[in-house]
Amino acid sequence: MNTYIKVPQDIEKRSFEIIGEELGDKINKFDETTLPVIKRVIHTTADFEYADLIEFMNDAINSGKEALKNGCKIYCDTNMIVNGASKMVLSKFNCEAYCLVADSEVAKEAKERGVTRSIVGMEKAAKDPSTKIFLIGNAPTALYQLKEMIERNEIEKPALVVGVPVGFVGAAESKEAFKSLGVPYITINGRKGGSTVAVSILHGILYQMYQREGF
């Protein structure tokens, strides 16, 4: 009879042990705050190339932790990110993740203006002073829109931007363009990324702040 690990905590623990082993010398690129993040990204994707592609800028993790500790809203460019984020852990810090791309008013305005819903959703979210963290895993237009609003001084600089849109049109370019702003920023250079990567980065930060039972 075949035996296999059945306890969720044990599966995750063993997965992280394997990741640590297979990172090899690359593990030395990361410190005690960044290593849990890249391990969780690799755990989500089973792709070790992320260790070469991920970039942390302007004390991003500590800035994100401070915003989370103080309780904040987190704008996500997809409902997949919202659904994937641990609501239980976020509630411990009085934080809330939300998305506006499916909002009927956002959809109506986007159609009237001939722009993406991601642009309109970002416009509305970025003007909310309680929204301190932005997770962008899908739409380069959302990242570009946030960049332009910061440059025009229409909003305060965010506490953390996770800019990891995936794709072939504007994804790599939008991530690169955002780097000039001096904002606490975590990105995946190049075409790779996605909503699941955005969630894994958030969890890589959150689980440094909150110890889950059994882990």
Q: What does this entry look like structurally?
A:
Belongs to the CobH/CbiC family. Keywords: Cobalamin biosynthesis, Isomerase. Residues 10-207 form the Cobalamin biosynthesis precorrin-8X methylmutase CobH/CbiC domain. GO terms for molecular function: precorrin-8X methylmutase activity. This is Cobalamin biosynthesis precorrin-8X methylmutase CobH/CbiC domain-containing protein. The protein has 215 residues and is α/β, with parallel strands linked by helices. It has one domain. 50% of the residues lie in helices and 12% in strands. The protein has eleven helices and six strands. The protein has helices at 8-23, 35-45, 50-53, 60-69, 79-84, 87-92, 104-113, 117-126, 140-151, 171-178, 195-209, and strands spanning 54-57, 73-76, 96-98, 131-136, 160-163, 185-188. The chain has a six-stranded mixed β-sheet, with helices on both faces. Helix 10 links the parallel strand 5 (160-163) and strand 6. The longest helix is centred in the first third of the chain and has 16 residues, at 8-23. The two termini are 28 Å apart. 43% of the residues are buried.
Short description:
It holds the Pfam family CbiC. 50% of the residues lie in helices and 12% in strands. With 215 residues, it is of the alpha/beta class.
